[in-house]
Amino acid sequence: MTLEMRPDCERCGTDLPAEAPGAFICSFECTFCAECADDLDDMCPNCGGELTDRPTRAKKHHAAHPPSTQRRYKA
């Protein structure tokens, strides 16, 4: 099973490419940028879980294990 690798911050909409560092996730894969995770004191506002660094996914694996394209930010 692979991570969903959501493409954006749920709080501000910042793009978070799967191959780039700077994304934070909880155990349910709620996804936030570094600035929002810091503002949230590394606690997920959805479930109350800890936000931790999301690992990156090398581009060579995107064909076999594509990152999600479904954006979660709601303006």
UniProtKB/TrEMBL annotation:
Q: Where is this region: Disordered?
A: 50-75
Q: Which InterPro entries match?
A: DUF1272 (IPR010696)
| Pfam families the UniProt entry points to | DUF1272 (PF06906)
Highest taxon of the lineage: Bacteria
Protein name (Swiss-Prot/TrEMBL): DUF1272 domain-containing protein
